[in-house]
Specification:
Layout lengths: L3 E8 L4 E6 L2 H10 L13 E9 L2 H12 L3 H8 L3 H6 L4 H5 L3
Antiparallel strand pairs: 1-2, 1-3
């Protein structure tokens, strides 16, 4: 069975990079080596893996990667830290749901 991974890296400039791969170890090695000199991370090395999630379905992995890429920094940080309450609070629609309670 093939697996797919969505992951978040911390770059040296404290920015987050979100990606997806079917071989996490190989991809991390590529990121750390700066194999693409014109990539986002090339000038932000070294990078550190902070979070990842494994999937069996590539379409699900792609959808989650796209979703996370649209999140704010603080929402990504809440995910990395598994701070579920903050993850909910930092949701774009949180205020609309909060008013209904």
């Amino acid at each position: 069975m093939k697996f797919y991974f969505v992951y978040i890296l911390l770059c040296v400039d404290k920015t987050y990079y979100t990606g997806m791969t079917n071989d996490l170890e190989r991809r991390l090695s590529q990121h750390k080596s700066g194999h693409k000199k014109d990539s986002y991370k090339a000038t932000r090395l070294p990078v550190k893996l902070l979070w990842y999630l494994q999937f069996e379905n590539p379409k699900e992995a792609i959808a989650i990667e796209k979703q996370i890429k649209g999140w704010s920094r603080r929402k990504k940080k809440a995910l990395i830290e598994e701070n579920w309450q903050d993850l909910i609070e930092f949701s774009k629609n949180y205020s609309q749901y909060n008013n209904r309670i």
